[in-house]
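The protein record passed on below.

***
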Amino acid sequence: MPNSGGRIVLLPGDGIGPEVTAEARLMLELLAPDVVLDERLIGAAAIRAAGSPLPDETRDACLAAVAVLKGPVGDPEFDGAEVRPEQGLLGLRAALDTYANLRPAVADGVDVLIVRELVGGLYFGASGVRDDGTVFDTCEYHPDQVARVARRAFALARTRRGALTSIDKANVLETSRMWRRVVNEIAPEFPDVSVEHMLVDNAAMQLATTPEQFDVIVTENMFGDILTDEASVLAGSMGLLPSASLGDELNEAGCRVGLYEPIHGSAPDIAGRDEANPLAAILSAAMLLEHSLGMRSEAEAIERAVEAVVHEGYRTRDLGGGAGTQVVGCKAMGRLVRERIESVES
């Protein structure tokens, strides 16, 4: 087994974040008992406690960790405020330089991996308000930013079905024309991977109607944000979709430093009611085990257990009920997955 030691920072976040992250924590304690789990504040909870959505102590702890597992951030209290919880997440991504965001969407007959560039584009470009009231946000990319995420997507496609779809808006945007050019320049390095370019509006339609055609998708930050939320419909709920954000730096286990998190929001309306779906957070922990600790067999154990529990008819509220199903709470769903793993291991 690869070295499962080291320190993992847990960032529970806001709303349902502490609830779903608690279940992911129990999973890590079960399968990687040698890791040290260090809990820190981010988002609205950090603003209230320290006046910043990403306190220096949190950032420094994350920079020194082998991996970070984060819950969702966001709180209506800070809607429209100058300092917002989401700024903590953007700051953390930039500090860790976790530029490649991997978001799998798996359902019957569909297995799509979306690779989203995470530290460039509109979310990180210049923005502001001019004297005349005009508001602007700037989409900026350097060719090197495109090249590194494209290479990561090509390499991932090589381990899957060997097909890469690059999504852009090259008929309108200069950044997209550069994006397409750089992808084409890198393609010869991966002769075993086929490449297709698709405009984002067409891609959105194709993902909704014939998702089985896609293997690996690579795209820029905002397009990736939108398309991965659309892809959540394929799995049935955002509560089922994990994500891994990886950089190039290697940790003490010899694996990629990564930031792992469910793609769903903080859902403050159901916080504290034991109704949240912990499966995306638990599957994010599985991605952490695989990519940052090299523990692929343990990650697969989680994936198989989640699939089995859902197949047996257990559902959290977001997944709906119906004949042959049983609706359970957040804690019960986490316990069912752990019990399934323990029953297989015993």
In short: The first helix runs from residue 17 to 31. The mean pLDDT is 95. Residues 7-100+238-345 form a domain with the Isopropylmalate Dehydrogenase fold (CATH 3.40.718.10). The chain is about 40% helix and 20% strand.
